[in-house]
Design brief:
The protein is α/β, with parallel strands linked by helices. The chain is built from twelve helices and 14 strands. The protein has two domains: 151 residues, Nucleotidyltransferase, domain 5 (2-Layer Sandwich); 172 residues, Nucleotidyltransferase, domain 5, CATH 3.30.420. Helix 10 crosses helix 11. Keywords: ATP-binding, Cytoplasm, Kinase, Nucleotide-binding, Transferase. Its main location: cytoplasm. It catalyses: butanoate + ATP = butanoyl phosphate + ADP. One of its GO terms (biological process) is acetate metabolic process.
């Protein structure tokens, strides 16, 4: 028996959708939402009807019978800490995301739209590896200031998918492996996986700078900036105008590489510094696993950059073998996670958090 799965990944200016039949992608669409259209809505959940109708229009235009779907899966938005893996989307989850969202984030719509479509045809809706997955060891929660606890907020979906895939590639089960995984995209986060659990991480605010984010900064100078600069400006410097944007006025790794190829030594210094900081964070998490590491995994969009990968590999290859899996693969990760549930290889949890 084959299974057909609709995967939905809402982003700030797009909604990416794909239909899978078992492990094969049979259709895919990136629905763009112009900024002037998005600007009409006060809250993320106000965009629900617009995005929902555009998804249905795509399915109708392709003569796809939604009644043939076995399940619908949406990107899991910010929730109170949850386990890794699949959750059935229920009324409690929808109510939380609609009426008491932790933050305004486009992914809040993933489960809401998935449940609407799934309910209309009598199948289950799921989320898989929400960005709020929290499996941290207790020792990893200690920050250094009693009033602040470290939180697990990472690119969990792609990182766990890369880890599961790598485990298969080396002929082992994910639960029997130790990995350090680095997700390298517009934001960069890393995680330590011990025996199938993500026990520690370096979030995009406490680690390497990235194309758009500043990463960890000297706290004394950051505090001084906060007292002399408006909060909204500081927030934008940290997320959106940090990293490569701050130094080189671009978030494009391809453009930076072109500059380097044309002899721009400053661009080379900054780009190599990003690799340097990523390598330092990998070393940091290697200590968490006491050096017992099956693979270091480099994934995400800028893992396509051979220049960056070569710099990182040079610094960390002494720790463990390297696996490079470029791309974010979020729709595939959602679909394959749901497929494992449908085939009985994993169990979906019931969301019951307030």
């Amino acid at each position: 028996m084959s299974f057909k799965i609709l995967a939905i990944n809402p982003g700030s200016t797009s909604t990416k959708i794909a239909i899978y039949e078992d492990t094969k992608e049979i259709s895919k669409k990136n629905i763009e939402h112009p900024s002037d259209e998005i600007a009409k809505y006060n809250k993320i959940t106000d965009q629900y009807e617009m995005r929902y109708k555009q998804i249905l229009s795509f399915l109708e235009e392709n003569n796809f019978d939604i009644k043939s779907l076995s399940a619908v899966v949406g990107r899991g938005g910010p929730l109170p800490p949850v386990r890794s893996g699949a959750y059935k989307v229920n009324d409690a989850m929808v109510d939380r995301l609609k009426n008491r969202p932790i933050i305004e984030h486009a992914s809040n719509l993933g489960s809401i739209i998935a449940k609407e479509i799934a309910d209309s045809i009598g199948v289950n809706a799921y989320i898989y590896d929400s960005i709020s997955v929290d499996e941290l060891d207790d020792i990893a929660r200690i920050s250094g200031l009693a009033e602040i606890e470290r939180q697990s907020l990472t690119h969990c979906l792609n990182m766990r998918a890369a880890a599961i895939k790598t485990a298969g590639n080396i002929g082992k089960a994910y639960k029997d492996c130790n990995f350090v995984v680095a997700h390298l995209g517009g934001g960069i986060s890393l995680s330590a996986h011990r025996q199938g659990k993500m026990v520690d991480m370096v979030s995009d605010v406490e680690g390497p700078f990235s194309p758009e984010r500043a990463g960890v900064l000297p706290t004394d100078k950051l505090v001084s900036m906060c007292y002399t600069t408006e909060q909204s400006v500081v927030n934008k410097k940290l997320r959106g105008k940090g990293g490569l944007v701050s130094y080189l006025n671009t978030n494009s790794a391809l453009e930076v590489q072109d500059r380097i190829d044309n002899g721009d030594e400053y661009a080379k210094l900054v780009y190599e510094a990003m690799a340097y900081q990523i390598a330092k964070a990998i070393g940091q998490l290697s200590v968490v696993l006491e050096g017992n590491i099956d693979r270091i995994i480099l994934t995400g969009g800028i893992a396509y950059s051979k220049m960056l990968m070569d710099w990182i590999v040079k610094r960390v290859s002494f720790i463990a073998p390297i696996e490079i899996l470029p791309g974010e693969n979020e729709l595939e990760s959602l679909a394959l996670g749901t497929l494992r549930v449908l085939k009985g290889e994993e169990e979906a949890y019931e969301y019951d958090l307030d």
